Amino acid sequence: MSLIAPSILNSDFLLLGDTVQMLNESETDWIHLDVMDGSFVPNISFGIPIVEAVKKTAKKPLDVHLMIVNPEKYIEGFRQAGADIINIHYEACQQKNLKSILRTIRDTGARPALAIKPDTPVSAVFDYAEYIDMVLVMSVFPGFGGQQFMEESYERIARLRSFFNDNNMDTLIQVDGGVSPGNIARLKSAGADVMVVGSVIFKSASPSNTISELKSLVR
Ligand code: DX5
Ligand code: ZN
What we know:
CATH topology: TIM Barrel
Bound molecules: D-xylitol-5-phosphate, zinc ion
Strand content: 15-25%
Low-confidence stretches: none
Order of helices and strands: EHEHEHEHEEHEHEHH
CATH architecture: Alpha-Beta Barrel
Radius of gyration: 16 Å
Distance between the termini: 5 Å
Shape: globular
Number of helices: 8
Structural class: alpha/beta
CATH superfamily: Aldolase class I
Helix content: 25-40%
């Protein structure tokens, strides 16, 4: 069974408390928080204070996706704010520092994950596999919710799945961007374990029913 991680990026921030309450009572597995700095990506979303606020009400693990440059500066801050999973971008770090950054995340008690943009070869993460609990395969260019899913993502996920199988690793594969009821089952077959879903949930008439529908498609 795959996990569903709703991204609150496209929810109504004025109603954030109600949204987190709804997610607590739904079939949500993790709450996905998209942090954007206007530098690594061309958009600014929110930062540590919002993660802290969500944590006060959340009964599900917080999956924090850092689309920021120099993520190492903020690991401690996001962990203190309540991040359970800390996702950093491969492209945002210098390779020579990456292992130590991932180790730092683990040392705080959070689960380290490494995200890759659609134009980064999946083989880039191979050297770091033993330092992470999860790879985040972006299926859109990061920056905005509501973009169209990139079809080549199935193959990228399948390649990672075979790599982890061949190496007897239970590393999770997460997919993020344009996930919908139309592609979620195929993403599961390709090997994805955690599905991030934003606009499909928050633009629907009943977000909680949409989460149940998505969950039933990957059961
Ligand atoms: C994109 C973000 C995603 C996004 C998902 O940069 O990382 O988490 O909000 O939203 P949808 O499902 O609308 O593509
Ligand atoms: Zn995300």
